[in-house]
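Q&A log
Question type: sequence-to-structure
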Amino acid sequence: EVQLVESGGGLMQPGGSLRLSCLVSGFTFSNYYMTWVRQAPGKGLEWVSSISGGGRLTSYADSVKGRFTSSRDNTKNTVYLQMDSLKSEDTALYYCARGHYSNYDRRGQGTQVTVSS
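Response status: OK
Response body:
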């Protein structure tokens, strides 16, 4: 059974940092691109970042470029999203997903990130 479990969300002040993690199981992790998407209150899903199976290729939405960094540890079946210089507009439910950009076929339950002073 394919499972994706996010963790690491929480409440952070503007300018702060958080690192999200997504532990996966049930498939050969290194064979897949992994993606982070988010959904802010009252809005639709927004693609945030994707990372290739080997971790060498990454891409980011313009809204997070230069502030967020995707990485992965294929020995731990885990993908990460390092979020720095957080802004209030980063407040959202963050999901990890198996796939590339919006072409994903599995998604976790999400972890809430709230940026507020």
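Response note: The two ends are 40 Å apart (CA to CA).
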